[in-house]
Amino acid sequence: MNRIDLKFSKLKERGEKALIPFITSGDPDLDTTVELVIAMEEAGADIIELGIPYSDPLADGPTIQASSNRSLKGGTKIVNIMDTVKRIREKTEVPLVYLVYYNSIFKYGMEKFIRECSECGVDGIIIPDLPIEERKDIAAIGKKYNVHLIPLVAPTSKERIEKIVKDAGGFVYCVSVNGVTGTRSSINTDIEEYMNIISSYTNVPKALGFGISSAEMAAKFKPYCEGIIVGSAVIKKIEAGKSKEDIIENVKKFIRELKLA
Q1: pLDDT of residue 188
Q2: Number of neighbouring beta carbons within 10 Å of residue 167
Q3: Buried b (16+ CB within 10 A) or exposed e, 77-112
């Protein structure tokens, strides 16, 4: 069984929701990425998203764009990230998901990329700019290697939701607002109605992300979904750290607060 499915099954038994933090691989460096994954799991993270840095991340706001730029300037490449996941897998079985832009997979080689995901221990991939016509091929290769294709649904998707979630695996990434990623003080989407629409088309767990920046917001939205995704707010803790130890401690404390909520 895929680690993501196993995790959601165990959380359901315990009456818990999944906390899914996001970090950019290689920000500030790949050694710190390994330590951050371990620290976040210890603090209560259930599934961890690892962003593959990209020069033009259309779905990402300034915070994640800046972390991507820092990682790329440090020389991070996909092959190094695959090796980093192998190092992580020596220490933990926490479910891992790549957030990766389509062009990166296309250049690397679609089957090669997904096969290597499976070999190194990645359980799912999120592709924010995946063309609908390419979805079928990637989903089929993912099934072959037991790597879930996790679709993104937005409030504007409406009549396309059924088609988008058709090949969903692991969970559905439910974008809470229109626009790019980033911390927000409030979310104006009618989350209850939105999540009910998605639930009418799929039984796959739903995780809500984009704009959730605090324990209070996580607590507010958890009744409507099976998981909460937090990205930019975690990256800000990394940005603010003066040393590696500082970064790890800041992030760990924040994850603990979120999981408690």
Answers
A1: 59
A2: 17
A3: ebeebbebbeebeeebebbbbbbbbbebbeebeeee
* pLDDT (mean) for 250-259: 98
pLDDT tens-place string over residues 234-250: 999 999 999 999 999 99
Q: How far apart are CA 177 and CA 91, in angstroms?
A: 35
Cβ-based neighbours of 27, under 8 Å, separated by 6 or more: 33, 53, 67, 68, 70, 71, 74, 235, 238
Instruction: Express each pLDDT in 63-84 by its tens digit.
Output: 899 999 999 999 999 999 999 9
H-only helix segments in 44-101: 62-73, 78-89
For range 82-96, the mean pLDDT: 98
CATH of the domain at 140: 3.20.20.70
CB neighbour burial string for 45-73, b if at least 16 within 10 angstroms, e if fewer: bbbbbbbbbbeebebbbebbbbbbbbbbe
Number of domains, the chain: 1
Residue 255 C-alpha from the chain's centroid: 15
Quote the domain boundaries for residue 142: 3-260
Average pLDDT of the chain to the nearest whole number:
92
CA distance linking residue 212 with residue 218, whole number of Å:
7
What pLDDT, on a 0 to 100 scale, did the predictor assign at position 183?
Answer: 44
- Tell me how far apart the terminal alpha carbons of the chain are, to the nearest angstrom: 28
What is d(CA 147, CA 117) in angstroms, rounded to the nearest whole number? 7
Residues annotated as catalytic are: 49, 60
Instruction: Provide CB contacts within 8 A for 188, sequence distance 6+.
Output: 177
Amino acid (1-letter code) at residue 82:
M
